[in-house]
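Fold this: 1-deoxy-D-xylulose 5-phosphate reductoisomerase
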Amino acid sequence: MNIIDDRALVRRKKPLRVAILGSTGSIGTQALDVCAQHSDKVQVVALAAATRTAELVDQACKFHPRVVAVADKAHAQDGALDNLPSGCELLSGPDGVTELCQRDDVDCVLVSVVGEAGIYAAYAALAAHKIVALANKESLVAGGDLLMPMAAPGKLIPVDSEHSAIFQCLQGANSKELARIWLTCSGGPFYGWDAQKLAEVTAQRALAHPTWSMGPKITIDSATLMNKGLEVIEAHHLFDVPVDDIQVLIHPQSKVHSMVEFCDGSTIAQLGPSDMRIAIQYAFSYPDRWEAPCPDVDWRDAGSLTFGSPDTSVFRCLALALEAGRAGGTLPCAMNAANEVANGAFRNGVIGFTDIASVVESVIDTTQVEPVVSLEQISQVDSAARQQARKVIGGLSC
C-alpha cells in the first residue's frame, strides 16, 4: 500500500474535527498548540489521556471537546474529573478510547500514545475510515503488516519528524524511481562514545536529549538508537521500501529531517526547525500548508551541517532492530515489547544502559517468527516477549 497517491489530494473538511490520543504527553500538548493557533481550521472534539486527569480536565476547559477518555480505568474516578466542562462526555478504559476513535463527529485521530498500546487505537481509527495522524511508531513496528492494507491513500499521515520529512519529499514523485531513504538521526547524547563508557551511563544523563523535547521512554530509545531502528521499520512499512534501502544518517544539528534519493542520483531533503509542531501541523493541513507554528530558521546563521554513520557494534539496539526488521513477521513485535520492558527497567535503575540491548537480544533469540495475521496474535506475542524480558532482567539484576 502506497500512502502517497494523487487521489489523496482532496481538500479536507474545514474545520478539521480532531481527536487527540495522548493529549497530556509531549506530542499531544504540542498538537494542542497547533490547534490553538489555527482554531479556524482545526476543532478539538475529543481528548484522551492515560492517567493525568487533572491536566486532561485543564485541556478540556480550554478546548471544550465533546468527549474525553481516561485510558487507565484506575483513574476513571479521579476527583479532578468532577471539574470537566458541562456537557463533556466521559469515557474510560481501552474500550472508551476505541469508541472515541470511531465517533461520527471525528474526522482525524492523532495517535500519540506511547508504546504498543497505540496499535489498537490506530486499528480502530483506520477501520472507521478516519484520517490517522500517526505519532506512534510502535503501531507499525508491531502491526505494520496488519495496518498498512487498511490505510487508504491520504488516510495515514506520519507525524514523526523524519517520516513527515520523507512524506513531504515524496509528494509528486514516482515511488518506482526511489533508490533509497536517508533517515537522519541526531545521534543522541552519546554519539562517538565507546561501549565501555556507555556502560556507565545513568538514566538521568540519558534523559537529557541534545535537540528534541520528548517523553522519557522515547528519549531513552533515542539515546540507545533503538528509536532509529524502530523508525527504519516504520519507514519500511509506510513507504514500501526494503529495510536495507533505508540508511540511518547521523546529523547532530537536526536541521535536515530526512532525505530521499532517486535512481538518477538526485536527492531531495526536507529541512526546518527542530520543532515537532511543524510535522504535527502538516498532518492536520495536508495537502495544504498553514502559517508556521514556530520561529523559522535563518539559514545565513545556521552554521555547518554535518553527517556521519552510526556505530552499530556499539549501539547494538539499532543493529537488533534492523535484524528484526529484515526478518519481519512477529519478530519486530517481540523486539519492541522487550525493548519497552528493558527501557523501563533502566529508567527505574534495575539494569544498566547497555543491558537494554542484552535483554532485547535474548528475546529475539528465543522468538519463533510467524506471519502477522491478527491483533489477538500481536497481543499474545507482545505478552510472551514481555514475560521473557522480565525473566532476563531478573537474571541480570540478581
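The chain has 15 helices and eleven strands. The first strand starts at residue 16 and ends at 21.
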